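stage 2 :: seqdesign
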């Protein structure tokens, strides 16, 4: 891999490093400690050949980055998207470290990905590329080492293939090697909606902080994938009027509110939210500028920028995606007194219930969905309280407070374990 390839797409990593630098200065960390936290502990780049259905051979780049594992095994999703590169994976792995520490989940952060467009491949091709990728990264994953989970472009079927490939290699079934599996293979009840449930839960907490009654509030959700569609449905259950959603093909707007359940069916049958009955098709960028109480960016990183942040009219932004707000946009939103609930808090429901799934796998036991959801709510409530209190005490934004708390917890783990001579 050339240097040009390695440095391509450094935007999210620049933002992640800037957030860490700010936290390190606030905490008074030494230069050496800061440098240690900024660097990934282990990185693996692999070549993933695929024999396609027509007999031709395609070759893809795959990555697995373990940013930190001082507080426990590395944990993080696996992304299939054409724009995946090393620096994006590095940034996502670092954010996973802070997310796990903030929610007091005994994991470190990791992330993986393959630079592939899953929409251009058949199911058998996706199975073959997944199994080959798993075989390539197999030496550095495992239930006590690094535990992958679904992300953009992957799902519970992907996790089932990884679990099977790993289990065949070691000679026995290992349910705990991945999370986000099908329930019939040891997955957790409540896992599918966990990230969305956490987003909706903290959105309700944020609204109450700003004196907004959720039953009188409006919201727009950017992205209608794993996180966005569930967040829209759960916000509606909280009484919020969801007036707009978008996906990769565009956006729709209905001032009176969208029937999110019917929209889910429409999107599944047509492949897009566009042309939904009773809604107006609008440009995707228009959604970010709608006059709503809550904006939920739940697609990809870097959608709120120096160009788009001034257009935001929402009083609260709840980050369903990882890294949707750039550093420049963060400053603009803070100056405008727009409350931003950062990704490492807002979308942490997925890793929390992944942890619950891992615990259940280790115990060979299954909790009820009500039990899972109650435990998730408790975790989210505690993290919200911790971040809110720290923010007030130190006159910080929620992102600054969340990052500082997380970095301090990881630093404490480093200090207690010591540095191996």
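stage 2 :: out
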């Amino acid at each position: 891999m050339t240097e040009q390839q390695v440095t391509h797409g450094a935007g999210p990593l620049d933002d992640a490093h800037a957030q860490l630098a700010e936290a390190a200065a606030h905490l008074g960390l030494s230069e050496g400690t800061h440098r240690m936290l900024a660097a990934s502990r282990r990185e693996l780049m692999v070549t993933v050949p695929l024999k396609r259905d027509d007999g031709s051979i395609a070759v893809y780049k795959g990555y697995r980055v373990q940013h930190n594992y001082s507080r426990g095994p590395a944990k993080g999703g696996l992304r299939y998207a054409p724009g995946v590169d090393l620096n994006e994976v590095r940034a996502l792995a670092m954010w996973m470290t802070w997310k796990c520490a903030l929610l007091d989940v005994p994991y470190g952060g990791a992330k993986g990905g393959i630079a592939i467009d899953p929409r251009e491949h058949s199911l058998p091709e996706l199975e073959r590329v997944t199994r080959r990728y798993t075989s390539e990264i197999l030496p550095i994953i495992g239930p006590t080492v690094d535990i992958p989970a679904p992300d953009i472009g992957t799902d519970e079927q992907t996790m089932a293939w990884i679990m099977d490939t790993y289990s065949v290699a070691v000679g026995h079934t290992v349910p705990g090697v991945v999370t986000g599996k099908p329930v019939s293979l040891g997955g957790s009840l409540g896992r599918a909606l966990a990230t969305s449930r956490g987003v909706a839960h903290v959105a309700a907490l944020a609204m109450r902080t700003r004196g907004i009654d959720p039953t009188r509030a409006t919201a727009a959700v950017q992205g209608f994938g794993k996180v966005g569609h569930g967040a829209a449905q759960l916000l509606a259950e909280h009484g919020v009027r969801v007036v707009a959603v978008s996906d990769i093909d565009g956006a729709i707007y209905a001032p009176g509110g969208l029937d999110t359940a019917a929209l889910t069916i429409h999107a599944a049958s047509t492949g897009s939210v566009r042309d939904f009955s009773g809604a107006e098709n609008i440009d995707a960028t228009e959604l970010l500028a709608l006059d709503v109480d809550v904006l939920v960016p739940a697609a990809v990183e870097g959608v709120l920028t120096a160009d788009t942040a001034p257009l935001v009219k929402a009083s609260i932004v709840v980050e369903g995606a990882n890294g949707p707000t750039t550093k420049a946009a963060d400053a603009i939103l803070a100056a405008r007194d727009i409350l931003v609930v950062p990704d490492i808090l807002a979308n942490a429901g997925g890793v929390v219930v992944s942890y619950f799934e891992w615990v259940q796998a280790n115990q060979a036991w299954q909790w009820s969905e009500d039990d899972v959801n109650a435990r998730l709510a408790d975790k989210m409530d505690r993290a919200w309280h911790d971040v809110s209190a720290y923010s007030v005490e130190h006159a910080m934004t929620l992102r600054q407070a969340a990052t500082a708390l997380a970095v301090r917890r990881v630093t404490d783990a480093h200090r207690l374990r010591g540095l191996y001579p």
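stage 3 :: structure notes
- Residues 3-174 form a domain with the Rossmann fold fold (CATH 3.40.50.10860).
- The longest helix spans residues 369-394.
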